[in-house]
Specification:
The chain has 155 residues and is of the alpha+beta class. It has five helices and five strands.
Length: 155
């Protein structure tokens, strides 16, 4: 296992563990990496210094630091958002994902169905092409862009 310090195209820094350097490269090439803060898909390794453990005190300190930021499922340590705005964005994302149904690329069609009364009203989020989102707004469908990229998941 290897831990890399990562940085997204929006300047957010975070850490994550990978099976190997080659595993990181494969995930990056297949665009399966996302920023832990904003969900941006452009993630690069950032400069980092090697960690050298010289004794028991160093080991205890390193272990407590690594376990403090663990994500669900033990997927490595992540740094906390550096700025209050990043913290607020991360909290917003959690609330949207916890209280809404992810409809993926069918967002525009599903929002239109709800607006026309052809589907039950509920909180949804997903992805839409810019032209589809503009058409929804022009047609009076109440939609808002999210300030983060949705996690791709299946329901």
């Amino acid at each position: 296992m290897i831990r890399f310090s990562l940085k997204c195209a929006n300047g957010h820094s975070f850490d994550s563990w990978f099976q190997s350097s080659e595993a990181f490269d494969a995930l990056q090439k297949s665009r399966k990496l996302e920023c832990a803060v904003c969900g941006a898909g452009e993630v690069e390794k950032s400069l980092m210094a090697p960690r050298v453990r010289t004794g028991k005190a160093s080991t205890e300190s390193a272990e407590s630091t690594e376990s403090a930021g663990r994500t669900k499922g033990g997927q490595g340590a992540l740094t906390r958002p550096a700025h209050p705005a990043e913290q607020a964005l991360a909290e917003m994302r959690k609330r949207v994902e916890a209280n809404s149904e992810y409809v993926g690329p069918k967002f525009a069609a599903e929002a239109r169905k709800m607006h026309l009364g052809d589907a039950p009203e509920r909180a949804i989020y997903g992805e839409a092409k810019v032209e589809d989102a503009k058409k929804l707004i022009e047609d009076g469908v109440p939609v808002l862009p999210l300030p983060f990229k949705p996690h791709r998941r299946t329901n």
